[in-house]
Amino acid sequence: xxxxxxxxxxxxxxxxxxxxxxxGHASQVKHLIEKLENRQMSVSIIGQFxxxxxxxxxxxxxxKIMPVGIVPITSAVTKVVYGPKAAEVRFMNGVVQEIExxxxxxxxxxxxxxxxxxxxxxxVLHCEAPFLKDGLVFVDTPGVGSFHQNxxxxxxxxMKESDAVIFLLSVDSPINQIEIDFLQGTKEFAxxxxxxxxxxxxxGEEDLKAYMxxxxxxxxxxxxxxxxxxxxxxxxxxxxxxxLKETVLADSKRHAxxxxxxxxxxxxxxxxxxxxxxxxxxxxxxxxxxxxxxxxFEAVNAAVASIKAEAAEKDFLFEMFLNEYKLKLSQTxxxxxxxxxxxxxxxxxxxxxxMKKDDFLKKVDDLxxxxxxxxxxxxxxxxxxxxxxxxxxxxxxxxxxxxxTIRDGLN
Length: 411
What we know:
Helices cover about 50% and strands about 15% of the residues. The chain is built from 13 helices and ten strands. The protein has helices at about 5-15, 25-40, 55-60, 105-110, 150-160, 175-185, 205-225, 240-255, 255-285, 290-310, 320-335, 355-380, 385-410; strands at about 40-45, 80, 85-90, 95-100, 120-125, 135-140, 165-170, 190-200, 230, 350. Helix 1 (about 5-15) runs antiparallel to helix 13 and helix 10 (about 290-310) packs antiparallel against helix 11 (about 320-335).
């Protein structure tokens, strides 16, 4: 493997991990490094709602595991990996719940889990589809452009995770501005694109050719290339599915490193840009007037006191509530200072109760105190030692310069 991108990613991780203000972005880059080293490639199916994404997913996987319907179905990201048939729901608070496939729609259907009110982070399905046998991770995302804004936001968020993308169009609708905007955003992160045109069984050959020619011209312009390959498919009848699968699988075997390196380079550039924005917010927070900082720290202290009082009332599911307090504290910092404060959320089997209450309360106290200490330290709150202030300012400037040098060296 050409180690250039890997080395840049490792150097970026070292820089970010050494600064407490950038822990979240350090974690993001660490994930990129692990994927690149393990050659773990994800293929996402992406597009506007009601183009038939879930139906096409079932056709590709040769198994009817994704719910389909006449209303927007997918409200959460659904990952599919190779293995004996099983399903689990991973919630934002870290709880992991095994479910039956028949229960799936209760967690990913927009009708049954409107605006993701259950707090589902993702659903992971296991099946022994030949398409997944060599380690591909297949992802069905919520459709963009429906009435349900949460679905669009989830799809936009996950497009940053995709290495390769099956971008789905449909002959029953011309390419529209929603799809154009989404495609332009997605191409900033993915290393490979496959364009599938669904529902070809509903039109004649002449109309299909006209649609394909029309799409090809627009897509060539959007992708800034002279040629794109389109795959005419019918998810309903299986037409054209084999050609699409064979192309994706051939690329995953022959060009996996190339696709992953291009994808990693794009994602690394985005992570560095995000870290630089974080440091900019940090500068702004650090340069607030003492009065404003006092007010914000009072608000943090109030949030901490509220969490401690709430924790004292809990008698069960301590691990789950500990994760939820991490999320609350992170959100508090974001709202008050405009900065991300990163916590690792522990994954927990559903119904787990292993921690004693005294241990739980101690961990809550430690969690809250660590936040307060870190904010005081990185924001130099009421710091009167000039040497400490100058050293911190110089460290941040060096970090910014180093990150910009790496970013500017990326394509």
